[in-house]
Each structure stands twice: as structure tokens, then as C-alpha cells.
Amino acid sequence: MKIKFWGTRGSIASPGPDTVIFGGNTTCVEIITNSGCSAVIDAGTGIRALGDSLLRQSETRKIHLFMTHIHWDHLMGLPFFTPLFYSDFHIVVNGCKKCFEGLRKVFGSDYIDGTWPVCFQDLKARIDPPGDLPMAIVTLDDVLVEPHRLQHPQGGLGFKFVENDQKFVFLTDNELTHDGWEGTRFKDFVNFCRDVDVLVHDCQYFPEESRSRQGWGHSDTDTVARLAVEAGVKKLLLFHHDPWRTDHAMERIIGRCREELARLNSRTLVDAAREGSTFSL
Q: Which pLDDT score is estimated for 53?
């Protein structure tokens, strides 16, 4: 499978000269299976450019959209996702419990009339809601997609994509803690990430920053490094970059994580996700 980052930033988009290396758009990740099936994680501002790319690819008309949760930074790009306005596109929605409701509300004027000129029912694409049990284990051709609950305010889901013997895990907006909700404690994520080839994980903070941000639903360099070591992760990509974090400061985030991995005698490779970058498994 091939994975491309269209948005890597957290909380709010932060484009500008200080974020050109790691990117300023919010969460959007594209997964293309070996059979050509198209999956997208989240509809942050990065989904606008992805939509334009999909329009140029005449062979791709069915898209599986997996929503981690419905906080604004993961939704705000949706009105600019051009495939929604073409009748030959088919979008299958899945993910967190309120994913479909959240997508509809982006186009709603129920509370303040005039916030957006297009209504959900005016979209031309075929948009399928989740089944009776949102985000059960899903099969995309030969790829198995397995969900896992997140430790984040109002909840959410992370995903594991397994194709043949290759494993890719995406866990953003997740606070690694030993005393989280049942099923979302540190040990639970160790089991979920066991021996994966690539783990993309929220790493918004330095440890000294996270002490005053407990309960915010994000993780720090040292805790994420320990997860990678205990789970036997081959490569770790840091994600959900703080909107105030410049490219120079992101290099420090990577360096701090590498220091912790070295202290733990780990061979895990680490970098930060960069908008526009692609890798294959």
C-alpha cells in the first residue's frame, strides 16, 4: 500500500513561511491499496488538494472516508473537497460514532442561517453512511482495517491497515496514559501497535509542555518513543504538529524523540510526517 500526507498539522491550519517543510494543513491522509482501492483518513484542510488530485485521476471514483473524530480541525476542509460536487463520485463514510452526523453539520445552517451557502442534500456525489455498527472491522479488497478507541476529549478512533504482512497504524489526537479510559490505556496501544511497520502517532508536545496540558488528548515525545519501543515498531512518524511549532522547532521535536529512543537502546527509526510526502509498504 502507498500512504501520502495531505495534512499533518493539528488544531488549526497554520500555513506560512515557518511551516513549509512539515506543512500547515490539518489532518488528511490518503491510503492506496495494491489493488487500487482509495481510502482517506479525515477531512482537515489538506483534503482540498487531495480532492483536486482525485479529479485528475479518472480511474479513482470510489473513496472510503474514515473519520477519527469530528473536531473542527478534522472536518473543516470538507466543503472544499471537490469530488462531493460530482455525481460520478461514490464516497463511503465510516469511523467514529458521530462521523456522518458531523459531516452533515458542516453544511448545516440549523443554528445560524448563512454560515455556508451549500446544503448537504445539494451535494451531487453518492455519499453512503456507516452501517448499523459504525467502524466495525472493514475489508477493502485484500486490506483489513481495524479500529481502536482513542484517549481524546469526546472520544475517537484510530486505525490499523493490514495488507499481506505489512501493517500501518494511524493514531492521532491520542493521549498516552496509564490511567485512561478502559481500552485506551498505554498497554492497550502497545498491543494494538505490536510489530507494525509504520506507526503514525500524535506527538504535539515536549514532555515539559504536556505536564500542563493533561487531559487535552495529545502526547509528547518521550511517551510516544516508549510506545514505539514496547510495541516493537519499525518506524515512527510524529504527527498532529502544534500550530505554533515552526519547522525549526519541529526539528527539535524529532531530535528529542530520537534522544529518548537512543536512551532506550531502540533501533526504531523516527521522523515527523511532512505534508506532501509519500511512502510505500
A: 96
From the number of C-beta atoms within 10 Å of its C-beta (0-12, 13-18, 19+), residue 65 rates as buried
Q: Do strands 2-7 and 28-32 pair parallel, antiparallel, or not at all (unpaired)?
A: antiparallel
What is the Cα 59 distance to its own chain's centre? 24
Report the CATH number at residue 179. Answer: 3.60.15.10
Beta bridge mates, 251: none
| Domain of 201, in residue numbers | 2-280
Q: Cα-Cα-Cα-Cα dihedral of 68, 66, 23, 108, to 10°?
A: -80
Q: How far is CA 57 from CA 45, 50, 54, 200, 220, in A?
A: 20, 11, 5, 26, 38
Q: What is the pLDDT of residues 106-132, one digit of tens each?
A: 887 666 666 788 889 899 999 999 876
Confirm whether pTM is higher than 0.70: yes
User: Strand, coil or helix: what is 171?
Assistant: strand
Helix (H/G/I), strand (E/B), else coil: 260: helix
Q: Which string of DSSP letters, residue by residue, matches 102-165?
A: HHHHHT--SSSTTS-S--GGG--SEEEPP-SSTT--EEETTEEEEEEE--STT--EEEEEEETT
* DSSP H/E element including 229: helix 221-231
Q: Which residues of the chain have pLDDT under 70?
A: 109-114, 132-134
pLDDT at 113 (0 to 100): 67
Query: For the chain, what is the domain count?
Result: 1
Which pLDDT score, from 0 to 100, does residue 111 have? 60
pLDDT of residue 193: 98
Query: SS3 sequence, 191-227?
Result: HHCCCCCEEEEECCECHHHHCCCCCCCCCEHHHHHHH
